[in-house]
Design goal:
Helix content is 34%, strand content 23%. By secondary structure, it is of the alpha+beta class. Bound molecules: the ligand CSCCC(=O)C(=O)COP(=O)(O)O and zinc ion. Zn(2+) binds at residues 107, 109.
Length: 216
């Protein structure tokens, strides 16, 4: 399916959802210093052909303007002529869509996610044991244990992608970039938001729990 074949309503829905989520996350202080990026997929999906709307790079994401989003293809190339630049991290979105077929991907930076990625960097994953909010990931085992993967962060974004490819865990709808931020995804915007909120809760929990253990 080409970009032109995708229904206008589908594209408008994606932009409306992105606008709503962006404003909500901004109200929570989740885009400090222009950080973070959001995307929602549109149209049919094949691992080698898909399209998505994504935040434009370097914008103040607490503001709402007519130049907040653009559409790109599976290679991260704009689908229409525009002076906007897609997020500098678009290739990470491309890779996550390629591997998971997700419908939405949200990325934010926070103090808790950055600290825990460093606390657990040596084991390359953030362990979470038996916390109820693991159920937000549709993992319903009693006393579930999960490991949230942490990958290296590089200024050169294409260098991050191979480790994302390697470490993506089909059970866990997220991946943490070391001292950078969390990527969370889901079948749609509602699910990606639920996952992101759960990750952020768990990161704060893990941080505070770790501190209590170290003091004891
Ligand atoms: C000032 S934040 C550094 C870039 C970053 O990590 C980020 O999430 C925002 O980049 P974008 O190009 O999507 O605005
Ligand atoms: Zn980032």
């Amino acid at each position: 399916m080409s970009f032109e074949q995708i229904a206008t309503e589908d594209k408008q829905r994606a932009l409306a959802e992105l606008t709503e989520v962006k404003s909500l996350f901004a109200s929570r202080g989740w885009f400090p210093g222009t950080s973070g990026n959001l995307s929602i997929r549109v149209g049919d999906y094949k691992p080698d052909e898909f399209h998505f709307a994504i935040t434009a790079s370097g914008k103040d994401k607490s503001l709402s303007t007519s130049e907040d989003f653009l559409f790109v293809d599976q290679a991260g190339k704009p689908c229409e002529t525009t002076r906007l630049k897609p997020s500098a991290e678009t290739l990470i979105h491309c890779e996550i869509y390629r591997q998971t077929g997700a419908g939405a991907i949200f990325h934010i930076h926070s103090v808790f996610n950055s600290i825990v990625s460093e606390l657990f960097w040596e084991r390359k994953s953030i362990p979470v044991d038996g916390v109820e909010l693991i159920k937000a990931f549709n993992i319903w085992d009693e006393e579930a244990h999960i490991d949230i993967p942490i990958v290296s962060n590089f200024a050169h974004i294409p260098s991050i992608v191979p480790e994302v490819t390697e470490r993506l865990d089909p059970r866990i709808p997220g991946i943490m970039l070391r001292k950078h931020g969390i990527y969370a995804w889901g079948a749609n915007a509602f699910e990606a938001k639920r996952h992101l909120e759960a990750f952020e809760f768990l990161f704060e929990y893990v941080y505070r729990w770790e501190l209590l253990q170290r003091k004891a």
